[in-house]
Amino acid sequence: MENRNTDYTTENNNKLMKYDEILEKLEEISIKLETYNDYPKSATNNAKKAIKWKKENGSDCGTKVGWTRANQLANRKNISRDTIARMASFKRHQQHKDVPYSEGCGGIMYDAWGGTSGIEWAINKLKQIDKK
Length: 132
Description:
Elements: E1 8-12, E2 15-18, H1 19-31, E3 35-36, H2 41-57, H3 64-74, E4 79-80, H4 81-89, H5 106-112, H6 115-131
Antiparallel strand pairs: 1-2, 3-4
Helix pairs in contact: 2-3, 2-5, 2-6, 4-6
């Protein structure tokens, strides 16, 4: 996993913003865009499972973005087309989806991003959105 300091990531009017503040601002902006929450319940359950395991066992797997995605899915939050595209692109990690949580990051992060059902939904949803 890439090691990077994300405490302060950008300047805005000479004010440093924390990473979480940036994510919050981005979420406010995305609310104004068309958003979706019709992803499968199994994607929500996959994300909840990953979050629960991390809370109970600890894990340094994933990025803040990945865990933000897991929380969005677990809480049935609306997500933007851009977020759906990032979920769809997570399919490239499917070869690691069966790695047990206790043995590596592949399985837990695949589930954090919605697992197979969430990622397949994202691929199909993206096609549907882009047909409009």
